[in-house]
Amino acid sequence: MPAKDFLDLEEKKNLQKALKEEERAEVRERILMFLLLNDGKTQREIADFIGCSLKTVAPWCVHGDPNNLESLEDGRKNGNHKKATEEYINLLLKIVDEDPKEFGYEFGRWTAARLAEHLEKETGIKLSGSQVRRILRRKKYVYIWAKYSLEDKQDKKLRKAFKEKLDEYLRLAKEKPESIQVWFWDGAFKVATQVRHTAPHECGFSLRVIRRRAWTKKGKRKKVNGQRKRGRVNVMGALRYNDKKRVCFMSKKGNSETFHEQLKKLHEEIRQEWINLGNLPEDFREKGPKIIIILDNASYHKKKDVIEQVEKELPNIRLEFLPAYSPDYNLIELVWHSAKEYIANREFENKEELEKVVNQLLNEGGLIIKWSRKLKNKGNAVNVT
């Protein structure tokens, strides 16, 4: 056994540095063995300190080289994957992000087996699919569902300009809540199947059960009724940015007349709120807050006669239309998503029962929302808060 302080100062510093930087736990453990050995600990004391057997400690203390960290790696674990050179791994990481079509293949995605086969042609190194899979996992790759993207349909310049305008509105709403309010208005999603991302229009809760993940015993699967039922509850809603106040209206259908009526109801609620603060009703038009409504480009939102009526009857309201394919800028999407999650896997007997629960969630404070969650635009997550 080496004498105490057998390491010189430089060797000791190098080992201490390696102990902090080494990612592999087993190598860190072996470095620690040498440092403890240098402090005069016996192999038995080192084994007791680390919590392993003497047979584990002894070989490394005898055959390990403190000046060569590679000697502290377990050569017995060098499997076939070691045939993968650095060039092979770098090429793998490059190809896995490429479209298979670029290499003349008809399939649309890479699997580990396909990558192994292709790289064998490129490099002459033959690995199995499982070996390629292990390499990718070590490089922090995961095998998950691809996401739908609307980026090719979005106008990036319009989105950027609108985001800047929205940020300015939100800043003013925070600094001068008595002068300006920002409301996100939306609807048009179907709880039973999917969210239809088209801000301020009607939102439908269907009687069909929506499936979500749930805890169940391994090997079994929770079952929900997949039968379609007739019956639907339509909702239009608005969300105020500053205090997250919700105003949601049940509606029979979504059209320009309904939209106009619901806007008038929202306008009146804000007006009454302002009057209750001690202001005079006749002063609301001139001194009341400007109401910015963020909404989508549904055709009945932009009907000329509706816009003219809003400008004439509701002068405090200003409609700001989202860029196309930009539901991720509409904060009320989180309300619909949270409501959808809340009633997932539940079966409703009739429309009345569904409407009662929806009303409790949206209008009676029954829905707790995690506002820190990100809004999703077909897979592209953006947090406007």
Compact summary:
Strand 5, helix 11 and strand 6 form a beta-alpha-beta unit. With 385 residues, the protein is of the alpha/beta class. It has helices at 9-21, 25-38, 43-50, 54-63, 86-95, 112-123, 129-138, 156-175, 256-275, 284-287, 304-313, 333-342, 351-363, and strands at residues 180-186, 203-206, 232-240, 246-251, 290-295, 317-321, 375-377, 380-382.
Model description:
This protein is α/β, with parallel strands linked by helices and 385 residues long. It is built from 13 helices and eight strands. The chain folds into three domains: 9-77, no CATH class; 80-138, no CATH class; 155-382, Ribonuclease H-like superfamily/Ribonuclease H (Nucleotidyltransferase, domain 5), CATH 3.30.420. 40% of the residues lie in helices and 11% in strands. Strands 1, 2, 3, 4, 5 and 6 form a six-stranded mixed sheet that branches.
Total beta-strand segments: 8
| Rg, Cα atoms, Å | 32 Å
In the CATH classification, which architecture of the largest domain applies?
2-Layer Sandwich
Helical proportion? 40-55%
Q: N-to-C terminal Cα separation, in Å?
A: 63 Å
Helix and strand topology:
Elements: H1 9-21, H2 25-38, H3 43-50, H4 54-63, H5 86-95, H6 112-123, H7 129-138, H8 156-175, E1 180-186, E2 203-206, E3 232-240, E4 246-251, H9 256-275, H10 284-287, E5 290-295, H11 304-313, E6 317-321, H12 333-342, H13 351-363, E7 375-377, E8 380-382
Helix pairs in contact: 1-2, 3-4, 6-7, 9-11
InterPro entries: Homeodomain-like_sf, RNaseH_sf, Tc1-like_DDE_dom, Transpos_IS630-like, TrpR-like_sf, Winged_HTH_dom
Domain Tc1-like transposase DDE: 202-354
GO molecular function: nucleic acid binding
